[in-house]
Write a structure and sequence with these properties.
By secondary structure, this protein is of the alpha+beta class. The protein folds into 2 domains: about 170 residues, Ribosomal Protein S5, domain 2 (2-Layer Sandwich), CATH 3.30.230.10; about 130 residues, GHMP kinase, C-terminal domain (Alpha-Beta Plaits, 2-Layer Sandwich), CATH 3.30.70.890. It has 10 helices and 11 strands. The strands form 2 sheets. Strands 1, 2, 3, 4, 5, 6 and 11 form a 7-stranded mixed β-sheet that branches. A 4-stranded antiparallel β-sheet has the order 8-9-7-10, with helices on both faces. Strand 5 and strand 6 form a beta hairpin. Helix 6 runs antiparallel to helix 7. It is globular. The mean pLDDT is about 95. The protein binds L-homoserine (HSE). The site of L-homoserine has 14 residues, from helix 5.
């Protein structure tokens, strides 16, 4: 028997213009799983946190990740999972991706690392599909690999790790309202008008160029979303008004984090990020909504092994 304790971080997906193709890892918060492999087959999952999660093992995102790992490797075993720390589901900071990424990483560690980074992301995407009804890796890839990831293509999976400018601070606010990714995806139109597509791909190019050149002003200018935000901002009380207040602090951008309801701002100074975080908190309080605020410097850390033992 072998046991591992693994961590995978929260993440911000989309980064404004990169719907389903860009995301970054947040260092401060994430999921912790303990996973034990023994002989036999089957999956058991115990939730030791106070966060409510599905009781049926088939409804937990961890299960399809484990199954995909066994399918891809031809290996087998009984896997016992204990969820020790959990990001609140529906928060918009990659809760399902953190569990999925931790499960994929943990499985790989338990079985002496047969899978490549790309293959682990493919496993983690099974969890994302269960949670949201779609195979997207813009949370799962940064949760596994850390940093800022561009998914250039899905067939086959082609991921590019983008540089993180030295002065890249995010304030992320998670208001205590739940917006399921499934619901936030189901309201999006199936087609994008040419005018919006032109604006979107111009911005994706600008964002990538800004990251490579370390031009935070360009990054902020490019973080505009014509595809999802116009439909999703209705779930976030006072979204437009909040953005005006945040931009007035000198922040370069404010966007929905993933499918929401979390929002994040970007700035090149920690003080400005703190100021933006406070304004976001006050904004939601004024709407009677509690929230958690994180001010983070984006780093390259992704999923990691915290402990392991052979039993
Ligand atoms: N790209 C996904 C979406 C991320 O926006 O639906 C979900 O967190």
């Amino acid at each position: 028997m072998k046991k591992v304790r693994v961590f995978a971080p929260a993440s911000i997906a989309n980064l404004g213009c990169g719907f389903d193709i860009m995301g970054l890892a947040l260092d401060e918060v994430g999921d912790i799983l303990e996973m034990t492999a023994s002989e036999g087959d089957g999956i058991t999952i115990t939730n030791k946190t106070s966060v409510p999660l599905p009781e049926n093992v088939e409804d937990n995102v961890i299960t399809p990740v484990i199954r995909k790992f066994f399918e891809m490797t031809g290996l087998s075993g009984h896997i016992d999972v204990t969820i020790c720390q959990k990001i609140y589901p529906g928060s918009g900071i990659g809760s399902s991706a953190a569990s999925s990424a931790a499960a994929a990483y943990g499985m790989n560690e338990l079985y002496d690392c047969p899978l490549s980074d790309e293959e682990m992301v493919i496993c983690a995407m099974e969890g994302e599909n269960l949670a949201s009804g779609g195979y997207h890796a813009d949370n799962a890839a940064p949760a596994l690999l850390g940093g800022i990831i561009l998914i250039r293509g899905y067939e086959p999976l082609d991921m590019i790790q983008l540089p993180i400018p030295g002065n890249f601070y995010c304030a992320v606010v998670h208001p205590e309202i739940v917006v399921s990714t499934k619901a936030a995806r189901s309201i999006l139109p199936k087609a994008v008008p040419m005018h919006d597509a032109i604006s979107q791909w111009g911005n994706v190019g600008g964002l990538v160029a800004g990251l490579y050149s370390g031009n935070i002003g360009l990054v902020g200018r490019a973080m505009k979303d014509a595809v999802a935000e116009p439909y999703r901002k209705q779930f976030i009380p006072g979204f437009d008004e909040l953005r005006e207040k945040i931009l007035a602090t000198g922040s370069m951008a404010m966007n929905i984090s993933g499918s929401g309801p979390s929002v994040f701002s970007l700035s090149d100074k920690r003080e400005i990020a703190h100021k933006a975080g406070k304004i976001m908190k006050d904004h939601f309080s004024a709407h009677g909504i509690n929230c958690d605020v994180y001010v983070v410097k984006v780093t390259n850390k992704g999923a990691k092994l915290l402990a392991h033992e052979v039993l």
